[in-house]
Specification:
- By secondary structure, the protein is of the alpha/beta class.
- It has 28 helices and 45 strands.
- Strands 1-2-3-4-5-6-8-7 form an eight-stranded mixed beta sheet, sandwiched between helices. A seven-stranded mixed beta sheet has the order 11-12-10-9-13-14-15, with helices on both faces. The chain has a seven-stranded mixed beta sheet with strand order 17-16-19-18-20-21-22, with helices on both faces.
- It is flat.
- It starts with a helix and ends in a 17-residue tail after the last strand.
């Protein structure tokens, strides 16, 4: 593809001033096949690289680029393509191992297609991709980055001329999602692209990001060959332990041991051992690095130079060890990315993939977990060990496990991208100590949660800083706010590792409940009442417990459970069990297996079981033994009538969706210990399917697993897990019909933008931002249909009287001093002053008790209809983005932290939920006989504030306090607005990995 300026040697660009090298244009990107490349500006030092790159391009690709045979670049060509002013002429290169694999450049042109400078806002763009790297998505990534550069330099359109036979390049442009025009001129295709991002271009970008990052994780989890670098010659040590674990798991690929001290051909643990990766002589997909930190760079270079695709770095001594370690970690990431490799770690525990065709245990875990449907990610090796043990003890199998250590490169976001459409994973469990990119994490979690549960426990919540070794952005919002935003995204937030396992076990084994109604049955009235109380505490709607009495036998449990499953008045069932008393008065502990069989039979006999069933057991040793019968992930055989066989469905049904008759919860494996699930039957598992675009597609032959009924040693734990499933099911149903961001005809977006520009456009504006005065704040809010009640200063009693006459009686007299503002409990407010004498008396009282007028800064306002005082706020956090907050006004709400939060832009559904999610929300809806307030007006105010902040990112903070919501209408009595240059939106820029 040739630019018009290249067609004429006489068309020299006008001289432009030199600009500094724009290092912020440098970026690492993940390509379509999961490998990485570095994108950076081309400089004069790249002449030799450019010539070498061009020599490796085929004659056909050269012809497509220059529209004629062009076997080599002339000296003039090389100079032109390596000398740029970084404004009117820009060139970018994609590199791997320091060598060019693709280039792109733009030249600014005028309306006649000739070289130009600003204010011309169009540029011609041209690409060249090395043939060996075509089809990897390199050109698409370069287009995103060169477009971002062009927008930064005030270029709004790209023009490109492409030969009709160059279908690949035409597709790069047409698939990008930008608004474009296409024409055929002089035997070539002429394309014009508007570079303003569109919803479609953003969707295309994110879809490509998901595919690329998911593929990069898949390459790590499904290697065809693994080399353990640092496997010691003597038994023991980290490297030798990983080698033993790889072999013990039955890894289906090739395994090599690497130890620099080895000479000649030898073996370790029966596998070929070599002094270097290069000496192996065969392709290696994954390298596990277990050498001292000072030797890691040598190992990485060895891997990179011989085509290794990914690294698991177990070595410690990086950012967790201090400043020197942080710099060592940065160098590690830069080095690995320069070769196109991704890293898990450093200081990692390892990765596991239980798929039958892989069986990868590249970790320090001595035992391969059972195969299952749970994906587990942790940032802590110790917590990872505990979670592996807990899930194994309770019979839960895993699809994959990752303990990422310092997560310098591959993070939880990458694994969310993978698990989103991984047909082998139904539930995602995450233990996080930090969130490197909260905005992206929230977006990915919302999308994943729409198709499968995402359960998160956050460590280091109250330390005030990130754990050592974790590089995260600074955030000003409290942990409670982050938790609320995660819940808005559908994430199931739990507080402990135990709760993580409890919830994961239920979600992986049972269908989602269709509602909050819970049936309770068992042989202990007391345990039933405890369960009933726990349900109320968690916001569920328990039915009256059914007491089977201590004389109940397993058949009674079977019949009662079958009846509860058939009863349409309940959405879930909790079975409580204690040891029962035999005819001779002795306590029976040995009939747990019979009870387990009875429960299995009841679940299996249900015509269309769509309800989750959980078991609460106390000292039921016999039951625990029964639960340990089958530990295989294959169907149990020979159970006869005790274990009827029924077809299984997905562990995670769409909440409330009908299930076809003859189906049952999908099956899971069990193990030996107490608290292990009861098995209701065995059959091939079937993944639910959907017609929605972008939703994961199930495998043609999904793995066969045993369904389980999760069992808990305490009612509170069982009910808490059930409540999380109920809330998640409700979120799923609502997410299927998302709200909308309403349009308001009276919004003056242009006028608001002009006002903001007038404030921030001055030379003397503080770079940290400006807090608007009362008049300008009111004017800006008025552009969005938000009226702030006038406030008149009252520095003297006479001024107060004059203000009251202007506003009209009755009035309110308030102090606005910072220490008294919005604190009516301190006596700084006088209401319903109906006459001048009352106003003067109130003024005298305030100044006598609280201080001088110049200290109190009193003001006068007209009275408004009485109602409930509330607070509406919005603020932009650099890590999370714009957040809309709502709460009731007053010290009590602040003390209890009773504030709700939603991400901007808020939908009508978000606004309604925001109001109703407060613990004090009953005050808005007629608590104790009071009149309900005008919540529709309040929802509209929230939506208008959200629109203001979303439309104008310069509005970095808004506070409306108090907002008095009456039975009809509302009144905004005070407003504070702060403007500042908007923080960069990393989520809207071109795809890139975090910078190091």
């Amino acid at each position: 593809m040739q630019s018009a300026s290249e067609q004429s040697e006489a068309a020299e660009p006008p001289a432009s001033p030199e600009h500094d090298y724009p290092d912020h244009w440098e970026a690492d990107v993940v390509l379509r096949d999961g490998g990485t490349a570095r994108i950076r500006p081309i400089t004069a030092d790249d002449a030799d690289r450019l010539v070498s790159f061009y020599e490796q391009v085929s004659d056909e690709s050269k012809y497509y680029r220059f529209f004629a045979p062009y076997p080599r670049l002339s000296a003039k060509d090389v100079h032109r393509f390596t000398h740029h002013d970084f404004v009117d002429r820009v060139g970018l290169a994609a590199t791997v191992g320091g060598e060019f694999i693709a280039t792109v450049r733009y030249d600014r042109i005028n309306d006649r297609g000739l070289p130009a400078s600003a204010p011309a806002d169009e540029a011609e763009v041209a690409f060249l991709v090395q043939d060996a790297h075509q089809g990897r998505g390199v050109a698409s990534a370069l287009l995103e980055h060169i477009a971002a550069v062009a927008r930064e330099r005030d270029i709004r359109r790209f023009a490109a001329e492409v030969l009709p036979a160059n279908n690949k390049m035409i597709k790069v442009f047409t698939d990008a999602g930008y608004t474009q025009k296409r024409s055929f001129e002089d035997g070539s295709v002429r394309l014009h692209l508007d570079l303003e991002p569109t919803d479609r271009s953003l969707a295309v970008q994110r879809a490509r990001e998901q595919r690329a990052e998911a593929r990069s994780v898949q390459r790590l989890l499904t290697p065809g060959s693994v080399a353990v670098v640092g496997a010691g010659r003597a038994p023991g040590g980290v490297g030798r332990t990983v080698l033993r674990n790889l072999l013990g798991a039955g890894f289906t690929g090739r395994v090599y041991a690497v130890n620099a001290a080895l000479t000649g051909e030898t073996q370790l643990d029966g596998v070929p051992a070599h002094p270097s990766v290069g000496a192996i002589g065969e392709p290696v997909d994954l390298a596990v690095v277990a050498v001292p930190a000072e030797r890691v760079p040598e190992a990485v270079a060895d891997c990179g130079e011989h085509g290794v695709r990914g690294l698991v770095v177990l070595s410690a001594g990086y950012a967790e060890s201090g400043a020197a370690g942080r710099e060592r970690q940065r160098a590690l990431v830069r080095q690995a990315r320069s070769y196109g490799m991704r890293i898990i770690g450093p200081n990692a525990f390892g990765i596991i993939n239980t798929a039958d065709d892989v069986r990868l245990n590249a970790s320090l875990a001595p035992q391969m977990p059972a195969a299952g449907r749970i994906g587990l990610f942790t940032q802590s090796g110790a917590i990872g060990i505990a979670l592996l043990a807990g899930l194994h003890r309770r019979g839960a199998g895993l699809s994959s496990f990752i303990s990422a250590g310092n997560r310098a490169d591959v993070s939880g976001n990458d694994f969310l991208q993978h698990w989103y459409d991984d047909p082998g994973t139904d539930v995602v469990l995450l233990y996080l100590e930090s969130i490197g990119n909260p905005r992206k994490f929230t977006r990915l979690a919302r999308r994943t949660a729409a198709v499968k549960p995402v359960v998160v426990v956050k460590g280091a919540r109250h330390s005030g800083s990130a754990p050592p070794g974790h590089r995260v952005p600074v955030t000003r919002i409290p942990h409670a706010t982050v938790s609320a935003l995660l819940r808005q995204a559908g994430v199931i937030r739990v507080d402990t590792v135990t709760e993580l396992v409890d919830a994961g076990l239920l979600l992986a084994a049972q269908p989602l409940p269709a509602g909050p109604r819970v049936a309770i049955l068992g042989n202990s009235e007391s345990l039933g009442l405890l369960t009933y109380d726990a349900c109320l505490t968690e916001g569920l709607r328990p039915l009256r417990p059914l007491d089977l009495t201590t004389a109940a036998v397993p058949a009674d449990f079977r019949d009662a459970l079958a009846a509860a499953l058939a009863d349409e008045t309940s959405d879930a069932v909790v079975v409580t069990a204690i040891p029962w008393v035999g005819e001779d008065g002795a306590t029976e502990f040995g009939d747990g297996e019979v009870l387990a069989a009875a429960l299995r039979e009841a679940v299996a006999s249900a015509p269309a079981p769509t309800k989750p069933v959980v078991v609460v057991h106390v000292e039921m040793g016999g039951l625990a033994e029964a639960l340990a019968v089958a530990t295989s992930t294959r169907p149990a055989a020979g159970r006869g009538a005790v274990t009827p066989v029924v077809p299984a469905v997905s562990r995670v049904q769409q909440a409330g969706a009908p299930v076809q008759p003859g189906t049952a919860p999908a099956q899971k494996a069990t193990t030996e210990q107490a608290g292990t699930p009861v098995q209701p039957g065995t059959a091939p598992a079937q993944k639910a399917t959907t017609e929605q675009a972008g939703t994961p597609t199930p495998p043609a032959t999904p793995p066969v697993q045993q369904a389980t009924i999760p069992a808990y040693p305490a009612a509170e734990r069982a009910v808490r897990a059930l409540a999380e499933a109920v809330r998640y099911g409700q979120w799923r149903r609502q997410a299927a019909e998302p709200g909308r961001v309403p349009e308001y005809e009276d919004i003056d977006e242009t006028g608001a933008a002009a006002l903001i520009e007038g404030v921030l456009g001055g030379d003397d504006v503080d770079a940290r931002g400006v807090t608007l005065d009362t008049e300008r704040a009111g004017a800006l809010l008025a552009r969005y249909g938000i009226t702030v009640l006038p406030t008149l200063p009252a520095p003297t009693p006479d001024a107060a009287v004059a203000a009251a006459r202007r506003l009209g009686y009755p009035v309110a007299l308030k102090t606005t001093a910072p220490h008294l503002r919005h604190r009516p409990d301190l006596g700084g407010v006088r209401l319903d002053l109906a006459a001048e004498d009352q106003l003067r008396t109130a003024y005298a009282e305030l100044t006598e008790v609280l201080g001088k007028p110049e200290e109190l800064q009193p003001v006068v306002q007209a009275m408004v209809p009485r109602g409930v005082d509330t607070v509406v706020r919005s603020a932009i956090d650099p890590a999370v983005g714009a957040v809309l907050s709502f709460g009731l006004s007053g010290a009590a709400s602040e003390l209890l932290g009773d504030t709700a939060h939603r991400l901007v832009p808020a939908t009508d559904r978000d606004a309604a939920e925001l109001i109703r999610s407060l613990r004090t929300a009953p005050l808005l809806f007629g608590w104790r006989g009071s009149a309900p307030v005008d919540t529709p007006a309040l929802e509209e105010l929230l939506l208008r504030v959200s629109r203001l902040v979303d439309d104008h990112p310069e509005v970095v903070a808004v506070s409306l306090e108090p907002v008095v919501v009456a039975p009809r209408g509302l009144s905004v009595l005070g407003a504070t607005v702060r403007l500042a240059p908007p923080p960069p939106r990393t989520d809207l820029g071109p795809r890139s990995l975090p910078r190091y």
